Amino acid sequence: MPWQVTPAGVTCKGISLQTSNGVKIPATKPYFSEEDIAFITEKFREILQGKSFLSNGQYVAQFEKEFAAFIGTKFAVACNSGTSALELICRALDISGKEVILPSNTFMATANAILNAGGIPVFADCADNMCLDENDVIKKITQNTIAIMQVHIGGIVSESTLKLKKICDDRKLYFIEDAAQAHGSSLKNIKAGAFGVAAGFSFFSTKVMTTGEGGMVTTNDEMLVEKMKAMREFGKVKQDIYINYHKYMGYNWRMPEVAALLGLRQLASLGNFIKRRNEIAKIYDQELKEVSSIKIIKPEADSIHNYFKYIIILKDHDRRTVHKELEARGIQPSGYVYELPLHKQPVFPLANDLKLPTTEYVSAHHFCLPIFYGMADEDVKFVAQSLREILKT
Ligand SMILES: Cc1ncc(COP(=O)(O)O)c(C=O)c1O
Fold first, then answer.
1. Residue 275 and residue 259 in one domain
2. pLDDT tens profile 325-383
3. The whole model's pTM is what?
4. Max alpha carbon distance in the chain (Å)?
5. Both 286 and 375 in a single domain?
6. Atom 8, ligand 1: which residue's CA is nearest?
7. Which of 248, 114, 263 is nearest to 176 (CA)?
8. Which residues, judged by CB distance below 6 Å to any ligand atom, belong to the binding site of ligand 1?
9. Residues 337, 55: Cα–Cα separation, whole Å
10. pLDDT, tens only, 263-307
11. Does 57 share its domain with 171?
């Protein structure tokens, strides 16, 4: 059994979790095995003893190499968040003054990265699976469009990814992936992160693999790598013996070594994490298949879903009531993706009147059930049973 009850409090199959704040089943929970913890603490001790550098050193380089190999790209560039990964891509592609089309149904960070790099976010509608709708994207392309950014919401790699990539290739636009949620997901044997010119991943604490905080860009473009590696260190490049030479505008987006140590171990476990998440999803599928008032958002054919989120649409019920009633039973619903789309956010007043009907519907009606590697089968069944009971009333 890969997941065990340990002094660190990790759940194992068949044993329910009871935390101190009354939460029986949390929305998510990271997993590090005892071997992971031993490896990380041993290497970190060496770093603390001064045997190697604390930031952006040998383990970051190793993590980049292994992550690129896993995704299937030539290169990866580590940084300190998913947001900085996306901003590095946008800056390296020099999108300043140009429009980038993105789904409105995404996290604020996707738009932040574009804005911080001087670009103009243009919000498009999504399809029923919550990822970009290529038909709406086409309508949004103008003379000033430079890129389309697909977001693999909840870990789903939508069929629209391939269509959008073709649209970009035909029109000489950049195809960028926000793969913040899609570690290990794939479509037709191509992994999220390997479709476009570059992709940004997040290793925030809730993600399928985590370094606490952290990010990674994957790309096949060596010129972009040179720029992004400079930009993550204030835009510096080495001139002769000197390093205080700033060729680009940059910032401090470096990854600390301890984060890379976590990342190396999480990457080694990612296959197991995804396998278990798929087992959990299967249980939910089975337990909920006869509930006619919900629609389960299923992965595409010929795809691997990492099940960062298990998403359902509540067709007839008030989401707030369902949320509160699950919480009353000690079940923490997983975070929404996303409850208020970007075009309705107060920070974008000029976009507030935009009509993106599918986005508005799925944002308002979707619901994410708890899912994480160490979740016991009986806890999955308890969540499903609770949901069935709540939806009956
Ligand atoms: C879709 C999406 N984009 C970008 C980000 C930003 O990642 P981070 O929180 O690591 O900056 C996240 C993560 O929260 C995300 O879910």
1. no
2. 999 999 999 999 999 999 999 999 999 999 999 999 999 999 999 999 999 999 999 99
3. 0.94
4. 73
5. yes
6. 82
7. 114
8. 81-83, 106-107, 109-110, 151, 178, 180-181, 202, 204, 215
9. 32
10. 999 999 999 999 999 999 999 999 999 999 999 999 999 999 999
11. yes
